[in-house]
Amino acid sequence: MKHRLALTQGVVWMMPKEHNNKVKFEKASQCKNGTVSRVCFSTPMGDLEMKFCPSGIHTLHRLSKDDSDFSPDIWTKVSVKQAEGSSEVHSHVLSCLDWLKAFFGQPSSRSLAEKPSLCFGNRASGFYPLVWETLAREVPFGTTISYGKLAILCGSPGGSRAVGTAMRENPILLMVPCHRVIKSDGQIGHFSGGKSVKQWLLSHEQNK
Ligand SMILES: [Zn+2]
């Protein structure tokens, strides 16, 4: 399902070709459910790239691989920075946009945002997607859980190392909230995108 762009949403769609701040997208790929498209959002934690197929969101991650350039700005408005392909806005883009606005916005708006559909593509079965789905479902905004407790929730007591690996492999930042998984002694533990990003996200969620 696709929607025409609503100008009132303040969405910047299809950046002009001459725009020199353009993000270079890689070649489009395929999911068993259809073509995978890409979009880039401006957010308070920097630019986030999302990939999605007709079935749901595949990936959401910071464009930067580490936190060396991490300079969060809470005044940055969540908006579509750039999209590839057609001038029509896909419903997954709109639902992700709403969700991100709620995540970074006022607590009162948070419960109103519906969780976008996720698609794990050809990784839809096995232990990792079970961990991702359990985490997304059971560990809400402003809370944390230890690797060990998450392993128990997934029916695998003693599987905290495998949970740690699942977190490293997490394809969908924020919506699969791997930043909420910390060590049992309270230390924040590893984060693939850099510890300062994880620390900032945890602080952001404490200031709810
Ligand atoms: Zn898919």
Automatic annotation (TrEMBL):
Keywords: DNA damage, DNA repair, DNA-binding, Metal-binding, Methyltransferase, Nucleus, Phosphoprotein, Transferase, Zinc. Belongs to the MGMT family. PROSITE patterns: MGMT (PS00374). Its main location: nucleus. It catalyses: a 4-O-methyl-thymidine in DNA + L-cysteinyl-[protein] = a thymidine in DNA + S-methyl-L-cysteinyl-[protein]; a 6-O-methyl-2'-deoxyguanosine in DNA + L-cysteinyl-[protein] = S-methyl-L-cysteinyl-[protein] + a 2'-deoxyguanosine in DNA. CDD domains: ATase. Involved in the cellular defense against the biological effects of O6-methylguanine (O6-MeG) and O4-methylthymine (O4-MeT) in DNA. Repairs the methylated nucleobase in DNA by stoichiometrically transferring the methyl group to a cysteine residue in the enzyme. This is a suicide reaction: the enzyme is irreversibly inactivated. One of its GO terms (molecular function) is metal ion binding. Its EC number is 2.1.1.63. GO terms for cellular component: nucleoplasm. It is found in: Nucleus. This is Methylated-DNA--protein-cysteine methyltransferase. Its cofactor is Zn(2+). GO terms for biological process: DNA repair; methylation. The lineage of its organism: Eukaryota, Metazoa, Ecdysozoa, Arthropoda, Crustacea. It holds the Pfam family DNA_binding_1. It is an enzyme of class 2 (transferase).
